[in-house]
Amino acid sequence: MSTTTTKDSRSREKAPAGEKVADWADGRLGIYSLAKANMRKIFPDHWSFMLGEICLYSFIIIILTGVYLTLFFHPSMNEIEYHGSYVPLQGQMMSEAFASTLDISFDVRGGLLIRQIHHWAAIVFLAGMFVHMMRVFFTGAFRKPREINWLFGFLLFVLGMFTGFTGYSLPDDLLSGTGVRFTQGAILATPIVGTYISMFLFGGEFPGGDFVSRFYSIHILLLPGIMLGLVVGHLILVFYHKHTQFAGPGKTNKNVVGMPLLPVYMAKAGGFFFLVFGFIAMLSAVASINPIWVLGPYRPDQVSTGAQPDWYMGFAEGLIRAMPGWEINLWGHTLVLGVFIPLVLFGLFLGVIALYPFIESWITGDKREHHILDRPRNAPTRTGFGVAWVTAYMIMLIGGGNDIVATHFHLSINSVTWFVRIGFFVGPVVAFIVTKRICLGLQRRDADKVLHGRESGIIKRLPHGEFIEVHEPLSQEALHTLTAHEQYKPAEIGPAVDENGVERKVKGSQKLRAKLSNAYFGEDNQIPKPTAEEYKEITSGHGHH
Amino acid sequence: MSSQDIPEENLPAERAADEHGAVSVADEKHPFADPGLPPHEHRIQDIDERAAKRSERAVAFLFTMSMLATVGFIAAFVAIPVDEIVYIWPLGHISGLNFALGMTLGLALFCIGAGAVHWARTLMSDEEIADERHAIEASPEDRAKVHADFKQGAKESALGRRKLIRNTMLGALTLVPLSGIVLLRDLGPLPEDKLRHTLWRRGKLLVNMNTDEPLRASDVTVGSLTFAKPEGLEEHDHEFQNEIAKAALMIVRLEPKDIKDKRELEWSHEGIVAYSKICTHVGCPISLYEQQTHHVLCPCHQSTFDLSDGARVIFGPAGHALPQLRIGVNDEGYLEALGDFDEPVGPSFWERG
Fold first, then answer.
1. Which of A69, B25, B64, B157 is deepest in the core (most CB within 10 A)?
2. Interface of B with A in 317-346 (CB under 8 A)
3. Is residue B136 part of a domain?
4. Which of A292, A50, A31, A112 is nearest to B105 (CA)?
């Protein structure tokens, strides 16, 4: 039992009410042992650490607004004639789902706002996760012990994509129906089971009368339920592992330096929730999103031009648009490669994100815990791979909007498509090489700064007439920070024969590992950081700069 | 992939300084030693009470703004009609209620956030504190204890010894989810040949989608694109959506001499050709027609088909030509189908062949 030790005489006589409540709860829940470890938990500060917070807060906003929307939305595909307050669609046949979405938008006061907040928050959520994952990737925060949390995050990203897709398909408008049709067409391309999956998913032929109610339970219960569990797990692990930090004076792999949860992070993080919510609310006040009344209800024989999915599905759209229409007919069966290959690529392209931490740890063979973040330049090959992936993703995003690009920039749709087809293969390679070069250049500059100091901009004329720039030595803090990163040595296979001269069997996987290790840490793939000897030799003052 | 085959010396050596706290003085041997946490620098609010008061007032102002914004939200909810359209520069004509509610709610929330963050940044202690980390993995003693406990438990369960129990239990646990999978069977019917048939039959008239009137051959002029549905299919029909998804037709008239494909010419009527409107890529309705070239374009993924040459694919991701419907003219001069499509319409699938 905690007794108060403050000098306040009032509290010595009688514990304040809050303390009594806390004591009561502790007696039943044991909250003090939890609070002891966490109330003054230290969180390091860096702008990039708030990206994950944006995801968490937009997720909460989505849940809050989503619950509100379920109170008014009718997840039914019964066809009715519309007689609501939106005049242009009076008398039109539409599903109840579409009609109730119109009601939410035009008859429920604040309904449109909540709908728009819900949709904007979903867009921010996915974008936030994308950028947050880039942060984690490029700083190596996924390394041991955080690989499982990386997987949690990966699953959240993928499930978020599908929750978004099932969500924007619910209003049964012309645009989203077209997206569902595209999905159904892609499902049909699956060898052997495609038609079966399609019939089971849609309760018969497309569009049928079932998909809205089925998507509804997937969208509001199944996927968010799993995601909520993953979010909680993700946060528990963040707390348990303690946050990573960048190297710097006083910051080591064995400590965590920052401000305590109570009060600073409570206020900053709690305040940030309101900032994000407020920002999205104002965005929803001024920026219309998914105006389904402009699009009209879905009809399988109608379509609008410029049909685009939400941004996070854009790269899948790009894959399907860029792929040539290969189709193989053999023995009375059709292998629809033109659609099936994009479907498989979609999975592989995302799957490689999940696998990366395990690939890298296999290459390094490093089993230690890592709590100090890498600067992206100090892991050139990893950074190169990351940028290559993002490049491929972005090129596919362009491909997904090839019609928009063509009309906006007055280009031929054919040339945009060909650019995407070639760019998908060439772009990542170029991006990888360029990124790696830049990283190595930055490493050289860091090494140069450590050994020769900072360029001061002061030009000095020596007695014999030579001009030199004065270099200021770095502070101890900067010297430490710039040399704090670790550098691996490339793995070697070892001699081809053992000590008895007998040929050693080297497994193929070991050869591959050595090759990859060399690509990561070999001579030309990282710049050796300055050693104490180099530094001493240069700074001992033998007259050269 | 075990750690044994990785020579220790490939791992970077951890610097001694990192192991046991900071080395505060850089010496000959350690020129890059960690100087430790820099001394805390005071903010103006820590020293000057007047500055701190200013911060306090700023925070209080933001919280007050939030309260006012909430009052504004309620006022807007009550006062502004739901259907009022207002002009707001530069947004244009928008819903006044949506704008007012969004701005007031946004402001109410944003001011709370801004106030809290300003409070944290200016008035709460900004002294950095270092906390120790502890290894995530358990100590060797704990590890040994858990392993021993587990072995003990496993032994007491006799699972390893009594193989019959283990095997039948695994069998039961493997089978029981099957019931759940079987239950999914009635989610939908089997595909059978559903994707192979549409509503089109011999003698069905082609009905103009826009006017709902049967089409005469003379109604179809060169250069126009007409959408048609089979006679008898009405918007109010229960199966309308499913049927139109397969039966939708586009009709154009070409000069018979322009038709390059022999079968296309045979299946046409005086140059009038009827093709499935559903793209063979993933099923979007094709809707863009280029009169001069007789190309049609699917607006979803830009598959382009040449209607003068059997609707073969000339660009884009579609894998095969659009199915053509054989048409003729009945005694009264109306266009009619001479049968169903002879191949499945829409996207390809495994059984299509």
1. A69
2. 317-320, 346
3. no
4. A112
